[in-house]
C-alpha cells in the first residue's frame, strides 16, 4: 500500500514543477504592457519584395491635343463665291474629296491675258528669227538681234506665269474651280455657306488629320526632374472607361523652365489613335521610367527620423524578428512603392502593424 501512494505524489510534484516553468514571463512579473514583438502574438501581414521593370515615376494630368502639323487649311487661289458646298463641319473626308465649287471672275480675266500673251510671244518669236537671220547676213547690227531675243524670252515668261495661274485649283473656262481635301481627316472648320463669298486670304475649310495625337502634361516639379524625352507613358481615359486598356505613348519634349503660376513643368507626349482618344479630352498619364527597382506595398513604408524606412524580417532570427531599414523611394504608383536602394528582391517586409513595430523600435 505504501508503494502505491508514493507514485501519485511524485507525479503530482513533477506536473506542478512543469506548470511553473511554462508560465509566460509577463504573467510571472505581473507586467501587462508587453512590447509588440513577434513573440507577443501580433498578426503581421507580410509581402515579398519583387523586382520590376519600367518603374512608374508617377502620374500627372494631361489634355489630348493635335500635333501642330495635323491641321491643314484649305484656301481658294482666287476670291469668289461658293456655288455649292458639299461638306459640313465634323464630317470625315478622304484625300481628294470635293469640298466646294467656287466661281471667280479673276481666272476669266487671266485667261484673256494668257491668250494675248501667247499672241505676243508668237510675234516676238517671228521677229527674233528674222532679225537673227539679217544679223548673220550683215544687213543689221548684231545688237538689234540680241534685243529681239531678249523680248522673246520676256514674252515666254509672261505666258508661263499666266498659264500657272490658270492651272491653279483646276479653274475651268467659266471661272469655276473645285476645292478639294489635301489630306484625310475630320473637318474641324467650315466657314462658308452656299452663295457666300470666299476670300483668297482666308481659309474656308480646316481639316484635322486622323491617326496622330499628343498629350500636354503638367508635371509636378519633383517628378519633372526625372522625366526625359523617350520615356514611355500610359494614358488612362477618364469617365468610366477604366476597363479599357491604357493607351501607350512616349515623351517627346520637356520644358526647361517651371510655370510660376502653378509651379509645374509642361511636357508633351505623342500617342496613337484609339477609341476614346479625342482632342480636348482630359486624361491621367503615368510616366514609366527606363530602369528597374524593387516593389513593395506602399503601406510598408513609414517615416522615421525624416527618412523612409521599411521593416524587414531577420533571416537569422528563427522567432521572426524585425529590423528597420532605411530605403530610397524611386516612385509611388498603384498602391506600390518602388525602392531604388535599401532592399533586394526576395526580402520579406511587414505590410501591416507598422505603427506597432515603429513604437516597439522606438522603445
From TrEMBL:
Keywords: Coiled coil, Signal. InterPro entries: Beta-barrel_RND_2, RND_pump_MFP. Gene3D superfamilies: 2.40.30.170, 2.40.420.20, 2.40.50.100, Helix hairpin bin. Residues 215-272 form the CusB-like beta-barrel domain. The keyword tRNA-binding does not apply. Residues 114-165 form a coiled coil. Residues 1-22 form the signal peptide. Belongs to the membrane fusion protein (MFP) (TC 8.A.1) family. This is Efflux RND transporter periplasmic adaptor subunit. It comes from Erythrobacter fulvus. The lineage of its organism: Bacteria, Pseudomonadati, Pseudomonadota, Alphaproteobacteria, Sphingomonadales.
Amino acid at each position: 500500500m505504501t508503494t502505491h501512494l508514493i507514485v501519485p505524489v511524485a507525479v503530482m510534484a513533477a506536473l506542478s514543477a512543469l506548470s511553473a516553468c511554462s508560465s509566460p514571463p509577463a504573467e510571472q512579473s505581473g507586467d501587462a504592457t508587453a512590447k509588440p514583438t513577434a513573440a507577443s502574438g501580433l498578426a503581421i501581414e507580410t509581402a515579398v519584395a519583387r523586382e520590376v521593370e519600367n518603374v512608374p515615376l508617377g502620374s500627372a494630368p494631361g489634355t489630348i491635343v493635335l500635333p501642330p502639323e495635323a491641321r491643314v487649311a484649305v484656301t481658294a487661289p482666287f476670291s469668289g463665291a461658293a456655288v455649292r458646298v458639299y461638306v459640313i463641319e465634323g464630317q470625315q473626308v478622304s484625300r481628294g474629296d470635293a469640298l466646294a465649287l467656287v466661281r471667280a471672275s479673276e481666272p476669266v480675266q487671266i485667261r484673256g491675258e494668257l491668250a494675248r500673251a501667247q499672241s505676243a510671244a508668237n510675234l516676238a518669236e517671228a521677229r527674233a528669227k528674222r532679225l537673227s537671220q539679217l544679223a548673220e547676213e550683215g544687213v543689221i547690227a548684231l545688237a538689234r538681234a540680241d534685243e529681239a531675243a531678249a523680248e522673246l524670252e520676256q514674252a515666254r515668261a509672261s505666258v508661263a506665269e499666266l498659264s500657272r495661274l490658270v492651272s491653279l485649283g483646276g479653274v475651268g473656262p467659266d471661272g469655276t474651280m473645285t476645292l478639294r481635301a489635301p489630306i484625310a481627316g475630320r473637318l474641324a472648320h467650315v466657314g462658308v455657306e452656299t452663295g457666300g463669298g470666299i476670300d483668297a486670304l482666308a481659309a474656308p475649310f480646316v481639316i484635322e488629320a486622323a491617326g496622330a495625337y499628343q498629350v500636354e502634361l503638367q508635371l509636378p516639379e519633383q517628378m519633372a526632374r526625372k522625366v526625359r524625352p523617350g520615356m514611355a507613358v500610359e494614358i488612362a481615359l477618364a469617365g468610366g472607361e477604366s476597363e479599357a486598356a491604357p493607351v501607350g505613348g512616349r515623351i517627346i519634349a520637356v520644358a526647361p523652365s517651371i510655370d510660376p503660376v502653378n509651379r509645374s513643368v509642361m511636357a508633351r507626349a505623342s500617342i496613337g489613335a484609339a477609341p476614346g482618344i479625342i482632342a480636348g479630352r482630359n486624361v491621367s498619364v503615368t510616366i514609366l521610367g527606363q530602369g528597374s527597382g524593387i516593389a513593395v506595398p506602399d503601406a510598408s513604408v513609414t517615416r522615421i527620423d525624416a527618412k523612409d524606412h521599411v521593416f524587414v524580417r531577420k533571416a537569422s532570427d528563427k522567432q521572426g524578428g524585425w529590423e528597420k531599414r532605411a530605403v530610397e523611394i524611386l516612385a509611388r504608383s498603384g498602391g506600390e512603392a518602388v525602392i531604388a536602394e535599401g532592399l533586394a528582391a526576395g526580402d520579406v517586409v511587414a505590410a501591416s502593424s507598422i505603427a506597432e513595430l515603429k513604437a516597439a523600435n522606438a522603445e
